[in-house]
Amino acid sequence: MDxxxxxxxxxxxxxxxxxxxxxxENMYSANADEVIRCCAERAYLDFNRTLTYxxxxxxxxxxxxxxxxxxxxxxxxxxxxxxxxxxDCDVKMIERIKGLLATDNQETFDKxxxxxxxxxxxxxxxxxxxxxxxxxxxxxxxxxxQKWVNxxxxxxxxxxxxxxxxxxxxxxxxxxxxxxxxSYILKIAAxxxxxxxxxxxxxxxxxxxxxxxxxxDNVYSADHTLPWSRWNAEHYESFLSSLDSGxxxxxxxxxxxxxxxxxxxxxxxxxxxxxxxxx
Length: 279
Known about the structure:
Layout: H1 3-17, H2 21-30, H3 32-45, H4 63-77, H5 93-101, H6 106-126, H7 142-159, H8 183-189, H9 233-252, H10 259-278
Helix pairs in contact: 2-3, 3-7, 5-6, 6-7, 8-10
């Protein structure tokens, strides 16, 4: 990598993580856990708009409230002082993420993934920082936990420091990664492309998505499809199973590809379509 490419990489990475690539590389060498934390913090920003914290409508959080929210996240990560043995939080997200990296088969990965998402959901629902959802009564949903976990792992993969997440690793945990589900992935996986959306046809999977009422179906609808942020564990696992089935034809034309290899270009294709619709 020449100096100009390195400068560009540092600039782009800094805009996402608040550190340059060089700084993260040095941080990884000194304490890899800190880089996992950076990835988890970035992942948190990808879904925190779906959370309703205790505050008066239209008012910003006070510095004290923001500190409470930061402390909540640090306890989830398991790195805040006192968050270990004897703490009120046993999620230990960073340790569990490292456990996921150590798996060598899909079944074990899925089991550990489910345990982590469940632990995050349960701890968050015990928090006195969040308001309950008026539809479900829950403060925090499994769908939000999967976004936190899956995007953390995706950012770790994109940074490229962990050999377990590289394509040249055998067996590669990359093969086991789940797709981070958000509105774009939901739309492209469970929508029928029309004549104006032929460009995304290769990513369309005819996947069944949870509905607000009734049986899941393969036609995305803002009015009827249940938002990913309100999914429970059953919704998520059912969608993931349908996604795997839908990916079979795509994988045949992309040998050795994994779910996560479909997710990147599929997300970009849907994002471009959304931009075109707004212009």
